[in-house]
Amino acid sequence: MRAPSSELPIVFDAVTVTAGPVTILDNIALTLAPGAPTVLIGPNGSGKSTLLRVAMGLLAPSRGRITWGGLENVPPLKRAIVFQRPAMLRRSAAANIRFAMRAAGIPRAEHARRTGELLALVGLGPLADRAARRLSGGEQQRLALARALARDPAVLFLDEPTASLDPPATKAVEDIIRAVSHRNIKVVMATHDLGEARRLAGDVVMLHRGRIVETAAAASFFDTPQTAEAKTFLAGELLV
Amino acid sequence: MPTDATALQLVLNGDPALFAIVRLSLYVSLSAVMLAALIGIPLGAVIALTKFPGRQGVIILLNALMGLPPVVVGLAVYLALSRSGPLGSFGLLFTAGAMIIAQTVLVTPIIAALTRQTIEDLWIEYRDELTAMNLGPFGRVTALIWDARFSLVTALLAGFGRAAAEVGAIIIVGGNIEGFTRTMTTAIALETSKGDLPLAVGLGLVLIAIVIAVNALAWTARRAGERLAG
Fold it and tell me: What is the mean pLDDT of chain A?
């Protein structure tokens, strides 16, 4: 089991992100603590991806502050992210994973063993030597997960990891996410797929127009939503 | 006017003078491309990934230098290497070394400018991933150069095309000395002016064949590499 991470909790303190006149995140107060996956839900443009980027440290807040384990400006050595459309390096699947390990400073002696383990975890063992860009969309997404895990993260951010995947590929990715979570890696995932949120979430954070409208344990959120926005979203109605 | 048979005979009979010229031409041009790649690829990548005051001006200048007139480069290198020039003590004027220097000056901006564009395009695609991996500047440059390697072949070919085809710079700094600094392009210019056209036509055919062969080789290698690495 992983030791408690110094990355957690990740605390957003009145975080606002603006781009010119547009407010993308508005006064976000949120604590991401160790435990079951936290799922960010909300319609497109609600600020989910931006929140993940801020949490990852890729984007600085325009106002407010964010801390990782109580500290500001912590380099993302123990954080990893899988983007909605991950860029595959022009190398083999195995070389993509080795590259991430080198970047994370993992000793070269461990590369071969860990690459094998990670490829097996995501079911790509037989495709280790296949050019990553020649893999299918689902295989690329699984490889991106393996590449993120190659950094041995304490926190894994996933930005709509199953968007545009078919059901079998979605199930494969969700199974990996569950396995990752059971390894005591904190998963923070953005999705607008309510079914996926139900299947994976421990906690739910609902965003709308850059603001958090509701935060709750998953069971509570889906059974007894408190806000009008959450009720509308869960009812499958358009939230504009 | 020579017949094609006359020109081809020189090639088919393995004329020693002709092949000495071909060897020297390849030595000079390939050396210049290699040196220009060593300078231009890292330079282009650094410009692509670095923000600094005047960057746009540097990019415009670099692009403009792709059209550097060979005779002007030849003149500048001549002045630098001449006995009274800053590099005169090296005694390089009218040697193959001087011709390599002149062609390196000509080819470096081409390779640097094309590399800059290639790396910048790839950086747009990779930026999020490499930033999330907390990769430092050196790691980014090397990763991008490696992943752009197949596209950079085109930059090298453009550089080789420039080097193999130019005559203005190397005739000034090399002097077109028979058996010493005579290359295919300088020989073609000389033989044409003398009216001795068979050698000029033979060299012209060889030059075109070499350029086609180098491009075909590079293209084949690129396709094979892309198939393996994606």
Answer: 93
Cα A8 to Cα A69, A70, A81, A205: the distances in Å are 5, 8, 15, 17
Structure tokens at B78: 């001549």
How close is the nearest chain A Cα to the Cα of B47, in Å? Answer: 21
Instruction: Output the pLDDT for position A23.
Output: 96
Q: Note whether B224 contacts A: Cβ–Cβ < 8 A.
A: no
How close, in Å, is residue A91 to chain B by CA atoms? Answer: 5
Q: A185 with A69, same domain?
A: yes
What digits encode the pLDDT tens for the residues A85-132?
999 999 999 999 999 999 999 999 999 999 999 999 999 999 999 999
Residues from chain A that touch B125, judged by Cβ atoms under 8 A, are: 87
Classify the C-alpha dihedral A153-A157-A163-A168 as positive or negative: positive
Minimal CA separation from B112 to chain A, in Å: 21
**Nearest-by-Cβ selection for A133 from B129, B131, B230:** B230
Q: How many C-beta atoms surround the C-beta of residue B5 within 10 A?
A: 9
Are both A15 and A31 inside the same structural domain? Answer: yes
Q: Structural domains in chain B? A: 4-224 (1.10.3720.10)
Of A101, A133, A152, the domain-final residue: A152
* Pairing of β A155-159 and β A186-191: parallel
Contact B126 A87 (CB under 8 A): yes
ipTM above 0.85, yes or no: yes
B83 contact A CB<8A: no
pLDDT band of A3, cuts 50, 70, 90: very low
* Whether B144 contacts B47, CB under 8 Å: no
Put simply, the answer to whether A131 touches B133 (Cβ < 8 Å) is no
Sign of CA dihedral B61, B63, B65, B67: negative
B1: confidence class by pLDDT, cuts 50, 70, 90: very low
User: CA B219, CA B68: separation in Å to the nearest integer?
Assistant: 26
Summarize pLDDT for A179-195 with one digit per residue, the tens. Answer: 999 998 999 999 988 99
Which residue of A56, A87, A131 is in closest CB contact with B229? A131
Residue A164's pLDDT is 78
Asked if residue B21 lies in contact with residue B99, where contact means CB atoms within 8 angstroms, the answer is no
Q: Taking all residues of chain B, what is their mean pLDDT, rounded to a whole number?
A: 91
Strands A203-208 and A38-41, by their bridges, are parallel
Q: Which of A133, A152, A171 is the last residue of a domain?
A: A152
Domain of A121, in residue numbers: 89-152
Q: Is the pTM of this model over 0.90?
A: no
